Amino acid sequence: MLKWCRYVLAGVALTLAGCAALQPKLETPTVAVNSVKVLPGQGLNMRFLIGLHVQNPNAIPLPIRGVNYTVALSGQQVVSGNSQNQPTIPAHGEQDVEIEAVADLMNGLSLANALLSNPLQQEVPYAVKASVDVGAFLPNIPVWKNGTVNLATGAIR
């Protein structure tokens, strides 16, 4: 009986070692924020379109399983959420990914009140933080960008 258990354990160990050897060595993709646009609102909700540029240095395609994000305007967090159903980045390729985010009512009202107190202010500071899950045994990729956004045109700097 003991001899049989040794054979089973040796077989399991060899199988696990073989699977580990078949795993490709993956490099972490590069993710950058390339745009933040203020979209026309729906009712009292503020909407944003966050553009990410993803570069995949690997020989296999990488599916983006999800993106967790927060957006702050004028130092106030107005949006946080998670986006699913993103594209697969081709092997040795790159692709732009867009995430539509909607501010919740309370944060939107607080920001609108702050912006209405200074109606001449066209440029507003923003900060985007995201964490991109590409699966494939890689850790989430942190992304961060800040600058200013023109409320009239949506242009960022």
UniProtKB/TrEMBL annotation:
<dbReference type="InterPro" id="IPR013990">
    <property type="entry name" value="WHy-dom"/>
</dbReference>
<dbReference type="InterPro" id="IPR004864">
    <property type="entry name" value="LEA_2"/>
</dbReference>
<feature type="signal peptide">
    <location>
        <begin position="1"/>
        <end position="20"/>
    </location>
</feature>
<protein>
    <submittedName>
        <fullName>Water Stress and Hypersensitive response domain protein</fullName>
    </submittedName>
</protein>
<feature type="domain" description="Water stress and hypersensitive response">
    <location>
        <begin position="31"/>
        <end position="149"/>
    </location>
</feature>
<dbReference type="GO" id="GO:0009269">
    <property type="term" value="P:response to desiccation"/>
</dbReference>
<dbReference type="InterPro" id="IPR045043">
    <property type="entry name" value="Lea14-like"/>
</dbReference>
<keyword id="KW-0732">Signal</keyword>
<dbReference type="Pfam" id="PF03168">
    <property type="entry name" value="LEA_2"/>
</dbReference>
<comment type="similarity">
    <text>Belongs to the LEA type 2 family.</text>
</comment>
